[in-house]
What we know:
The protein is α/β, with parallel strands linked by helices. Helices cover 43% and strands 16% of the residues. The protein has a seven-stranded mixed β-sheet, sandwiched between helices. The chain has a two-stranded antiparallel sheet with strand order 1-2.
Amino acid sequence: MDEVERFSAEVRANVDRLMADADMQALSRAWLAEVTRRRYTYNFTWLGRPVIQMPQDLLAVQELIWQVRPDLVVETGIAHGGSLVHSASVLELLGGDRLVVGVDVDIRAHNRRELEKHPLAHRIRLIEGSSSDERTAAAVRDHARGRQAVLVVLDSDHTHAHVLRELQLYSPLVTRGSYLVVFDTLIEDLPNSLFAGRAWGKGNNPKTAVWEFLATSPRFEIDPRIPAKLLLTCAPDGFLRCVSD
Length: 245
Ligand SMILES: C[S@@+](CC[C@H](N)C(=O)[O-])C[C@H]1O[C@@H](n2cnc3c(N)ncnc32)[C@H](O)[C@@H]1O
């Protein structure tokens, strides 16, 4: 075993231990509840654009893009555009004609302006419309035509019905070996009081949509190792590996 393999084996064993470590998982969930209360995920930027994510999740998406080498990333939920710029920055290093397509029901003028003048604008396409609308999905499919490897990230409206519809519309684009990442599955695991006034909560959120989707979608399986190694993630049960064509 060479040094590279030895280090990989050490990390695998580390993640194995974390997967079995209920105390560490409970501690992490408690921390996540406290930082959710404090809007911690609003505190960061990626190459100048605000990104509403746990930093650990950005690391995981970076790892997936580098591993899968998609020629198209599709993201629902743009907000300020930080996650689009994040994906674009990794695609830029991979080269070729790789693109990230972002969908949002409301692309604010100032966010569009900042994205259009960003140094990575040539890697980014914006589609305004509800991600659950068939016309929006058709516009995304136009971008996917002829692409070899497609990765999809869902981070828009977090209600069960909306995410289930997104899963149905966008999962067919995901190619074998790639991933369908569903954010904010964590809502199911946190106290409902954190989501007072929101349309989502326990029993009605991205995780319940993932569970319903997987019951009839053998092309996908949960990758439990990614949330296990992150510990601090908004996507438990949300990293879905595409296992067949
Ligand atoms: C959590 S933010 C996205 C954060 C972004 N992915 C990031 O990492 O910075 C959710 C976004 O979803 C958008 N959204 C809400 N409902 C939507 C819908 N039906 N279709 C598309 N986007 C929607 C909102 O306008 C908002 O910008």
